Amino acid sequence: MQVVANNGNAVLMPEVKAIESEVSDAQKARLKVLCLRDHLAKVHEVEAGGRCSSLLKEAKISNSLVIKAATRDLEQRQKDLVAAQEQIRQAERCVEAFKLDSLKILSDVLKSSFEESFPPRNLDEHLYPEKFLLSVSARFMRYSHIIPSNYIGSSL
Predict the structure, then answer these.
(1) What are the phi and psi torsion angles at 5 (to 5°)?
(2) PANTHER family, alphabetically (predicted)?
């Protein structure tokens, strides 16, 4: 049952329909009912405004629900992004660790091959390997193309 408010007076829609039919009957009987028609037109305007208002309220409610859902989706995607960024940082740290391991292995290989090629001849070479390495640097330069540039000149 639909109710239309008109200047603070509530009118039920079935009553409005009954009044309309009586006004139509009176008009057919050639009675002057123009002022009644004006009042009924106002009632219909109020009814149309009420329907429009209810549609706007429904639209507002559905819009707020959509906004809440979109906000939750955005928050979840932000959490996923933060998690993915952390995984990327961990992967980058692993790659750096593997690179350092690779350089250490290369250094150990070069040191081992150098020691095989030039075994120490006396105790000084064992006690002061840096001096020995500098003295034979000319022979060692044949391996310089393998050594990374940041390792040249540093002690192994």
Answers:
(1) -95, 130
(2) OS06G0711100 PROTEIN, PHOSPHOLIPASE-LIKE PROTEIN-RELATED
Q: What percent of the chain has pLDDT above 70?
A: 44
Cα–Cα distance for residue pair 109/113, rounded to 1 Å: 6
Q: Which DSSP string corresponds to 38-77?
A: HHHHHHHHHHHHHHHHHHHHHHHHHHHHHHHHHHHHHHHH
Count the neighbouring beta carbons within 10 Å of the beta carbon of residue 50.
Answer: 14
Amino acid residing at 129: P
Is residue 143 within 8 Å of residue 118, measured between CB atoms? no
Contact between 143 and 114 (Cβ < 8 Å): yes
Task: State how far the Cα of 66 lies from the Cα of 144, in Å rounded to an integer.
Answer: 66
Residue 35 to residue 147: CA distance in whole angstroms:
106
CA distances from 32 to 26, 37, 50, 58 (A): 8, 10, 29, 41
* pTM of the model as a whole: 0.40
Q: What is the mean pLDDT of residues 11-19?
A: 64
**What is the C-alpha separation between 148 and 105, in angstroms, rounded?**
12
Q: What percent of the residues of the chain are helix, what percent strand, and what percent coil, each to the nearest 5?
A: 80, 5, 15
**How many Cα atoms are found within 13 Å in the side-chain-facing hemisphere of 127?**
3
